[in-house]
Fold:
Amino acid sequence: MKTIEKPRRNLLIVDDEPELLEILGTMVEMQGYSYETATDGQEALAKIRSFDFHAIMSDISMPNLDGVELLRFVQAKNLVIPLIFVTAFDSSEQVQEALRLGAFDFVTKPFRTEDLNRVTARAIDFGKRSLKIQSQVLEAMGTLSSAKEVLRESKMLGLLRAQNRLKKVA
Structure:
């Protein structure tokens, strides 16, 4: 059974400040990446359900669902999507918690363009490799499942043949 693939985007940018979303979008677009935007964690969840992303760039402090909760959701769904936090506070409890939970990296506002570009490139590269590995694992699992089905059918055929031979002898 073939699964329907979701469209892919390089990056999901999540921030409750529309101006910053526009700036970040322009920056990643200049690097040649495709992206989607979300204004809070709830909207980000909907986008994650609709697209495959190589990486997520998110503010930590947002209404409705903050960046740390977004990271928890990604991990609970076993999605291997590197999450970069862009935050004004580099030593806040939220940043420390996000790093403990497995955030890929964080960049402090105001950020230097080259720092953000470097972190973004690393995260997207990691995400692309992760998606490729996930795809290979799913393909191998499908192949294994098919092989198990063939093996099961051949065992059944063997049992039927043995049963027929017994009937002929009796």
The chain has one domain: 8-134.
